[in-house]
Amino acid sequence: MVETITKLSELTKIIRNDLNNNFLFREFDIPQYAFRSDIVPHSGKVADSNIFDLYRLMARTDRISTHDCVHHSLIPNKGLVTTALNNFFMDLCKDVVASQTIDSSIDPNFTYAVNCKVFPVEFVIRRHLTGSGWKDFKSKVDGAQEWSSELNCFTKGYGINITPDMFEDELIQTGGRLTSLLFTPTTKAESGHDLPIPYDVAAELVGGESILDNLVNICFGLFRKSEDFLAERGLLLVDTKFELGVDRYDFKNMDSSINNFSATDDSKKFYTIENKLVRVVDEMITADSSRIWKADDYEEYRGGRVDNIPSAFDKQFIRDYVEKIGRAGKPVKFPDELVIDAAVLYASAYELMTGKHFVELRALANTKENQSINDRIVDNLIKVSEKYDFKFRDY
C-alpha cells in the first residue's frame, strides 16, 4: 500500500501553522523601479510571469481556480509543490524533449525560463477513459456529438471514434484502461473553457499534420516515461495535459546559456521546426494538470469490489464544493478546514509522486523574519542578476 512519508497529522500541523501565520503567496510582483524597464508582467490564473525578450521569470502562486474562476482563498504551499513537481518531471523527461527551464534553483517558487511561442493546442493524453473523455464516449453512444462551425470545435465530445475494442477489459466502465494512449486535443483558451477539436483542426493550428504527428509523439514519450516512474511508486497516470512551444529564433542564434537543457549541447537530438527548438512549457505532471490514482484503489474498482472510481490527487473535491454551494464560475472564500484539506492533498501528492520529503521542500521556502515570499524571490533574483544580466537597478 503506497503511503506518504510524513504522517498526515504532521502535514496537517505544518500547513495549519502556515495558514495561521499567513505564510501564503498571492502574486509575484517585481518592483518596477528595481528592474529593467522593458519587462512585461503577465498574470495567469495561478502563475505570474515577467517577460523580457527571450526570457520569462515565472512564479507559481498559492492561488487556486475552478470553473475558470480564481478563488479568494489561497492554498498554503500549493505554488511550492506545483513548482517542485514540475521541476522533478521535466528533469525526469529531459531526454525526451527540451524544456523551457533555464534555471530552477534560484528560488523554490520560481523558474527562469525561455519565452517560447506556445502552440495554441492543449495536448491531452489519456491512458484511462474518465472525466470528459468518458462523457465523449457516452455521447457517441447516445448520439450527442455537436459540431460548431462558428467556433470551429466540438461543443460536445471530441469527434473521436472510441470503440469497445479500445478498452483492455470486456466490461466497459468509466475509468477503463485503454489498450493504447489516446490524444484528445483541445483549444488553448485565453479565457473560458478549452474546447475539444478534431485532429485535422489541431493540425491546422500547429502548422500541419506532420508537425502535429511529431508533437503528439513527443507527448506520448513524456507520458510513458512519467507513467513508468509513477508505476514504480504504486501510482497510475490516468490522464494529463501537456503544452509545447517553440523558440522564437533559430537555436544557432540563441544565447548559449539557454541551451543548457538536458546537460548536453547536442541540440540535434531534439525536434526542431525550421531550426527552432520545440520545448515542453508551462507545467507537467502536477496535481493540477494530471489525474493520478493509487494502483491498488484502481484494482479494487476494476475487480468490482468497490463501486466508485478512485479518488485522484487533484482539486476535484474543491470543484464539488463550489458546485454544491451554487458558486460555479464565481470566486469563493473557502472554510479554513477545506483549505487545509486541499493543502494536505498537494503535500501528500508531492511525497507519493516523488518519494521525497515535503518537510525538506518546505524548509527551502523559509523566509527571513517578517519577509514575504514575493520579497524572498526578489532577493534571490538579485543574487543571480549579474549571472543572467537581469539588470537590476538600485534596490
Give the key terms.
5-stranded antiparallel sheet; 18 strands; 395 residues; alpha+beta; 9-stranded mixed sheet; single chain; D-amino Acid Aminotransferase, Chain A, domain 1; globular
Task: Evaluate the radius of gyration.
Answer: 21 Å
* pLDDT averaged over residues: 85
Helical segment tally?
A: 11
Total strand segments: 18
Task: Please give the largest β-sheet.
Answer: 9 strands, mixed
CATH fold node name of the domain at 118-246? D-amino Acid Aminotransferase, Chain A, domain 1
Q: What structural category do the secondary elements indicate?
A: alpha+beta
CATH-wise, what's the superfamily of the domain at 118-246? ATP-grasp fold, B domain
Alpha-carbon distance between the termini?
51 Å
Helical residues, percent? 25-40%
Top-tier CATH class of the domain at 118-246: Alpha Beta
Order of helices and strands: HEEEEEHEEEEEHEEEEHHEEEEHHHHHH
DSSP strand content: 15-25%
Instruction: Flag low-confidence runs.
Output: 260-266
User: What is the architecture of the domain at 118-246 at the second tier of CATH?
Assistant: 2-Layer Sandwich
Estimate the global geometry from the Cα principal axes.
globular
